[in-house]
Amino acid sequence: MTDAKQVKLKPGDTIGILGGGQLGRMLAMAAARLGLRCQVFSPDPDSPAFDVVLNATCAEYADVEALELFANDVDVITYEFENVPSAAAMVLDARRPVLPNRKILETTQDRLAEKDFVMRLGIGTAAYADVTSVSSLREAIARIGLPAVLKTRRFGYDGKGQAIIREGDDIAKVWTSLATKSAILEAFVSYEREISVIAARSATGQVECFDVTENEHRDHILKISRAPAQIPDMLAEEARSIAGKIASALDYVGVLAVEMFVLANGTGPKVLVNEIAPRVHNSGHWTLDGASVSQFEQHIRAIAGWPLGKPVRHGEVVTMTNLIGDEINDFDKWLSVPGATVHIYGKGAPRPGRKMGHVTEVRPTKDK
């Protein structure tokens, strides 16, 4: 297997992307601008990323023969989602460099392993406990208190696979409804705001962070991101430092997102890490139109073995608004908004909670 430090693509080489959603689509578009080809592997024949690449593989992740043929056609492999099946990653890793390294997934696919990793780095996170049964859940509640958030250790996103537990709730019923034997209980965090840092790291150890982003969720789904976050400069620098420390400790190659809570307490605001996403991230979509280099281009540069860009934000305020479900039907109302750029993902019929596109607004001066 080729070491990440030895990967050095040239224009015309091919990147393999696991996953055919909007993130894969935008990665392929960024690669094309740099003269690199992409081939997408996805089991979904309606994958929106298929529309922007010349070659695609539509097969299940358990199809070893399809994986091997896919690997033979590309020079390096990356992924647009973190729940890549470990068996598929092993098959590919034996044939081509997989970046970020598949071993990182062992940490980020498991919420307990991820929390333990963050704690070992001396970085703050909400109190948590491993939960494997109703009895261990009761013990965890006794230690952590209520309210608290119960999450599956694996495969949760956009609020799926989790439940808030409050005083008076039927603990056994909550446990049964989660339908898992492996969960984590996290203390409920009363926060001032949610932020994230999109960080890129190259195989040589170069780290570049975008401006700290402030995020607003509705129904557990990201709705609006704003850059820069309205937090003190020292706190923003701390958040970027945390993201860089995590990327370096993982020996990461590519783009990752670190989601954090900003707390307000008697000694002033501080940040706690909530989750790590080992991929390009929804809260970084503003960089497509609001920065000199996007998160997607940074990821392509990193896995290609090219130098990272120095992100420079365009304008004083950049806002990204997700178009969710039926909101995509009114996309045209954004077309005449000054400073707005519309991105439509090319998905099928809208469904509640489905991200169909987004709009980026760049304002040269802050709103008064």
Entry keywords:
single chain, 368 residues, alpha+beta, Rossmann fold, Dna Ligase, domain 1, D-amino Acid Aminotransferase, Chain A, domain 1, 3 domains, nine-stranded antiparallel beta sheet, four-stranded parallel beta sheet, 26% helix, globular
- Major sheet details: 9 strands, antiparallel
The tally of beta strands, per DSSP, is: 17
String of helices and strands: EHEEHEHHHEHEEHEEEEEHEEHHEEE
The name of the CATH superfamily of the largest domain reads ATP-grasp fold, B domain
Count of helical regions: 10
Report the end-to-end length measured between terminal Cα atoms.
55 Å
**How many structural domains?**
3
Q: What's the alpha carbon Rg, rounded to whole Å? A: 20 Å
Task: Give an overview of the whole structure.
The structure is a single chain. The protein is α+β, with helices and mostly antiparallel strands. It folds into 3 domains: 4-98, 3-Layer(aba) Sandwich (Rossmann fold); 127-187, ATP-grasp fold, A domain (Dna Ligase, domain 1, 2-Layer Sandwich); 193-363, D-amino Acid Aminotransferase, Chain A, domain 1 (2-Layer Sandwich). The protein is 26% helix and 28% strand. Strands 9, 10, 11, 12, 13, 14, 15, 16 and 17 form a 9-stranded antiparallel β-sheet that branches. It has a 4-stranded parallel β-sheet with strand order 3-2-1-4, sandwiched between helices. It has a 4-stranded antiparallel β-sheet with strand order 5-8-6-7, with helices on both faces. A hairpin with a 5-residue loop joins strand 9 (193-201) and strand 10. The longest helix is centred in the middle third of the chain and has 17 residues, at 233-249. The protein is globular and about 60 Å long. The termini are far apart. The relative contact order is 0.12.
